[in-house]
Specification:
The complex is a heterodimer of chains A (about 160) and B (about 475). Chain A has one helix and twelve strands, in the order αββββββββββββ. Chain A is of the alpha+beta class and about 160 residues long. In chain A, the strands form two sheets. Chain A has a six-stranded antiparallel β-sheet with strand order 3-2-12-11-8-9, with no helix packed on it. A five-stranded mixed β-sheet of chain A has the order 5-4-6-7-10, with no helix packed on it. With about 475 residues, chain B is mainly α. Chain B has 14 helices and six strands. Chain B has a three-stranded antiparallel β-sheet with strand order 2-3-4, with no helix packed on it. In chain B, strands 5-6 form a two-stranded antiparallel sheet. The longest helix of chain B is centred in the last third of the chain and has 34 residues. Chain B is globular and about 70 Å long. The relative contact order of chain B is 0.14. Classes of the chains: A alpha+beta (about 160), B mainly alpha (about 475). Strand 1 of chain A pairs antiparallel with strand 1 of chain B.
């Protein structure tokens, strides 16, 4: 290689070192000025420690089947929130004189378990013959009774 | 740097309901890291070009490997510490790459060429692995605050380990290595981390006592005798290292680290003043009663009077002079003439081949590293992080000052390693771990904290700052 090329490469390398330093300095300069965020921005509030959404347990029920009452044989898949009652927009529109309009609901938690909750019904909700007073966890095989209608949680 | 005026836990909210927070800047880090790899790779490439006239055959491999390692380190940060300081990794990659390239260049001098650069590269890989391990498994550095005395004992124990007969070895006059199963290791490098942690947690607990008690003598506050014990203990340990291990640099590093952290913690000028007196006494003892230090002083002040004794220092001086302003260019100087050019005197090799411009750039890289460390100490929310960040940055600052100052004859020469550049596995690994710790601290310092629930703030409450409440009648009115 000619001396000229060697000298040019030498100077180019030194220039590269100082370019790196100048870039670093400009990063420091721009780092002085932060970013303005709304106090309610999701970036600002640190995320809750993420509980990983695990796969639902093997025994988790997938459908609700009416086993006794006027609608015996009716099946409703368990997805999201399952509303039970006489209201027309219920997931399972129960045809039973002893059921309230919005009687109970079945929901799934983060871990994949299903819970049944009475929504202040007149005649109450029973799980496996026991009237429930609070949110109660249910699994496959459990029988929920509302009025004269009985439903079983099943895994297909 | 004031510990007394701690930043409040939440950033100020402006009148418009918005807050100012740090940016994450991970893409900036990636770009800077890639630019930083070109420094090491450029040096390596130019060495090959200048020595053989052609590009080394294995260049795609080397480039891919080095860039890949750097990007991997970046990805670990991006995954675990999204708010970490964006400049630490690029600076370290630049320094480590320059060091590797220079060791590779000096490898080419003997024939056949040596392969020390490859060993150093393996050590770099190990250091990066530990770096990743610390980042992944140390979620909160404040956990390390729990065992100050244990860490202190372990640190001092490691420092004294080379004195154990059969384990310690004497290399180049200093007894600071241990040899186990054919591998030599410098335990003082690990002790550096442990002692910084121990000092930080000890001083957090005791800084009020150390800064407020004692009597005043003129402008200087003299501490009580029993508060003097820790500084006395550190002084004795440093003196023991100097006398029994013959290592000026290590002893100065640890004493200096302790005193600077003491100063940061207490904000009392009396402590450094006292330390200066103690240092002067120690230095006077050393000059008069040990031959080792006398040699160092005379080779600093009058190197040319005794060529045989000061050959190393003299040859480094000639190297700097031969390098001049812009250096000889990679592979075109003769850094191999200086003994220990790969380890203690790597700054002389840089000065010879890259010249003053290059050496100043290297010093600037170190200065930026230290500045970022001190900046993150300022930004941290709790005193332990502040002290640890400033202590770890001081370690780098002291080390670079002592060794480059020694090589350039600003100071008497002390055998310290040049962080990330000089040959030596234990130093490299310890420094990568220190950088990982600093990144964890900076992530916690820069991360926005919500105004509401603070999830992982330390559970220690400062009762001294708490407002006084009456116990009776205050609860129900």
């Amino acid at each position: 290689m000619s001396e000229l090329v060697v000298a040019a490469l030498k100077v180019a390398f030194l220039a590269l070192m100082w370019v790196f330093i100048i870039f670093a300095a400009s990063v420091i300069r721009s780092d002085l000025f932060g970013r303005e965020l709304a106090a309610t921005s999701p970036d600002f509030a640190p995320r809750e420690p993420q509980t990983r959404r695990r796969r639902p347990p093997r025994s988790a029920p997938t459908q609700l089947k009416v086993i006794q009452g006027a609608q015996t044989g009716l099946e409703v898949p368990l997805i999201g929130t399952v509303a039970l009652g006489r209201a027309a927009d219920s997931t399972l529109n129960i045809d039973d004189d002893y059921a309230s309009t919005r009687h109970a609901q079945i929901t799934q938690d983060e871990e994949g378990h299903w819970w049944v909750e009475d929504l202040g019904s007149t005649n109450g909700t029973a799980v496996n013959t026991l009237l429930i007073t609070q949110r109660t966890r249910v699994q496959s095989g459990d029988v929920i009774r509302i009025g004269r209608t009985q439903m079983r949680l099943e895994k297909r | 740097m004031s510990l007394a005026t701690q930043a409040s836990d939440s950033p100020p909210v402006t009148s418009t309901g918005s807050v100012v927070v740090y940016r994450r800047r991970r893409n900036v880090e990636l770009a800077m890291t890639l630019l930083a790899t070109t420094l090491g790779l450029g040096g390596w490439l130019l060495t090959g070009l200048n020595l053989t006239g052609e590009v080394p055959a294995n260049w795609p491999w080397v480039c891919g490997l080095w860039a890949g390692m750097a990007v991997a380190a970046h990805l670990v940060i991006r995954w675990r510490l999204p708010y970490a300081d964006p400049l630490l990794l690029p600076l370290v990659i630049a320094l480590n790459g320059l060091g590797l390239a220079m060791i590779h260049r000096i490898d080419q001098i003997p024939s056949p060429p040596r392969s020390d650069a490859w060993d150093q590269f393996i050590w770099t890989g190990l250091g990066m692995a530990l770096f990743a391990g610390v980042i992944i498994f140390l979620r909160d550095h404040r956990r390390l605050q729990r065992f100050p005395y244990l860490m202190f004992l372990a640190g001092v124990g490691l420092l004294m380990l080379p004195l154990v007969p059969g384990l310690g070895v004497r290399l180049g006059g200093s007894r600071i290595w241990i040899r186990v199963a054919g591998y030599s290791f410098q335990p003082s490098e690990v002790a550096k981390i442990l002692l910084a942690l121990a000092f930080a947690s000890y001083l957090v607990a005791h800084r009020e006592v150390l800064s407020l008690s004692g009597f005043k003598l003129g402008p200087i506050q003299i501490p009580r005798a029993r508060d003097l014990m820790p500084i006395g203990l550190m002084w004795a340990a440093s003196l023991a290292i100097m006398v029994f291990q013959n290592d000026l640099g290590t002893s100065m590093l640890f004493f200096g680290l302790f005193v600077l952290m003491l100063y940061v913690a207490t904000e009392r000028a009396g402590w450094p003043a006292l330390a200066a007196v103690l240092f002067a006494v120690g230095a006077w003892l050393a000059v008069n009663y040990t031959n080792h230090v006398q040699v160092r002083i005379s080779s600093w002040l009058h190197p040319f009077e005794n060529y045989d004794q000061n050959g190393q220092v003299i040859s480094a001086q000639f190297g700097f002079a031969w390098g001049g302003l812009t250096g000889r260019g990679w592979g075109l100087g003769r850094p191999g003439l200086t003994p220990l050019a790969k380890s203690d005197f790597i700054a002389a090799a840089i000065g010879e081949e890259l010249g003053l411009v290059g050496l100043m750039a290297v010093i600037m890289l170190y200065a930026l590293l230290v500045a970022r460390g001190l900046r993150m100490a300022l930004a941290s929310h709790d005193p332990f992080s502040k002290l640890l960040a400033s202590g770890l940055s001081f370690v780098f600052a002291l080390q670079v000052f002592a060794i480059i100052g020694g090589v350039t004859r600003l100071l008497p020469l002390t055998g310290l390693t040049t962080p990330f550049m000089s040959q030596g596995g234990s130093s490299l690994i310890a420094n990568w771990v220190i950088i990982a710790l600093m990144l964890v601290i900076s992530h916690h310092a820069r991360r926005p904290i919500s105004l509401g629930v603070v999830t992982d703030e330390p559970t220690v409450t400062n009762l001294a700052d708490d407002e006084t409440r009456m116990l009776t009648g205050g609860g129900r009115r």
